Fold:
Amino acid sequence: MGILQSYYQDVYKCPVVRLDGYSGRHGLPAGILAYLDFGGATGTCKDGVAETMLAFATERGVLKPGMPVVEASSGSFGAALAVSCATTGHRCILVVPSSLPFERRKRLQDLGAHIVACTVNSRKALDRVAADTARHYNGYFTNYFANDDNPEYHRRVTGPQILKACGDSIDAVVIGVGSGGTITGTAEYLKAWNSMIRIVAVEPSECAAISGGMIGQHAIAGIGPGFVPENYNPYVVDTVLTVSTADADRAAREVLFLDGVPACTSAGATLVAAEQLMSTGKAKRPLCVFAGRRMYE
Structure:
């Protein structure tokens, strides 16, 4: 393997593994595959996305050395962006709801982020404050939910990695929808090579904005923002499935004990959706994109 110039080079090398233990426990005719996209510093796929989005912006000249970077995020992307900014010499400013628990706010600050609290907890309000903050500090607003740099990362990395590892051995790819970048970029790339591959979007049954269902609270971190993201391309998605928080958490625990994969709850949601596909005969060999690992403090 040799000596890497940067740890981010290793982040981009995501393995595909067979989940024979989980598949066998549930009596599935073939082993589900998983693309493990969580090798970075924060344990999610957002590490590679954040670093690459900054690189794209720098290439275009809209992000200059030392310029502040602003985003409306209190979750995994905000954490990954804080780390990426620290390693590239940019100040990271995160706009978060004022109701954000102290522990989560402190974690972001420990990663180097400067926090701006917003009293109105809606995506539009947070984005508006983030855009105003960027203008005030002459900074760059990454606009993660509506910036094509997000799906472009997955067109260049996730889609090609899956195709290289699996070729024609899979007939469906199952992806949880948060910002919409992963499913859009991956699907657009894979569909260009194989138009017959089924792309399956997964969202919480308690917060099913994409499928037009109920919008409510859920505990599947990383997916189900409660609205349809601008980055989401419905024309490359064949099926939308919903999974409850309880089922997603159960599946994440099972794959840890049966296959040794420390999957987060959103990864568990993709597993449950893959089971649904196989049980209805809509897929014989699905691949799930695991976008985060279960974290232990």
The beta strands are 16-19, 32-36, 69-71, 92-97, 113-118, 140-141, 172-176, 198-204, 239-243, 286-290. The mean pLDDT is 93. The chain is about 40% helix and 15% strand. The radius of gyration is 19 Å.
